[in-house]
Design a protein that fits this description.
By secondary structure, this protein is an alpha/beta fold. The chain has one domain: Rossmann fold (3-Layer(aba) Sandwich), CATH 3.40.50. It has 5 helices and 4 strands; from the N terminus they run E-H-E-H-E-H-H-E-H. The chain has a 4-stranded parallel β-sheet. Helix 1 links the parallel strand 1 and strand 2. The N and C termini lie far apart (42 Å).
Length: 106
């Protein structure tokens, strides 16, 4: 069975425990890099990561983009939504489907 993890600061991720996801509280980018590598080695299928932590680990995450798994998805943190998560998801869909399939509001 595939596993799902959530990485980020405590305040941003603690609610995900209630829906059964494994959460990993990280206090700095170094811990985040180590944990991300471990989760990839353990074959997690989906890894949600706060936008702030994603920004700090962007180079490492880019190195895993060609792998079929895991899917690494940015989520807003406690500090708010920067829009980077939606942009990243849109790019992933374009890469998977071959074109932009989103509907733009007019």
């Amino acid at each position: 069975m595939y596993k799902v993890a959530v990485l980020g600061d405590r305040e941003s991720i603690y609610g995900f425990v209630a829906i059964g996801l494994e959460t990993f509280q990280l206090d700095n980018a170094e811990d985040g890099a180590d944990r991300l590598k471990m989760l990839i080695e353990e074959r997690y299928a989906v890894i949600y990561i706060t936008e702030k932590l994603h920004e700090q680990l962007e180079e490492l995450i880019e190195s895993y983009n060609e792998l079929p798994l895991p899917v690494i998805i940015q989520i807003p943190g406690l500090s708010g939504n920067t829009g980077k998560g939606m942009l990243s998801l849109k790019k992933t869909v374009i890469r998977a489907v071959g074109s932009d399939v989103t509907l733009e509001k007019e």
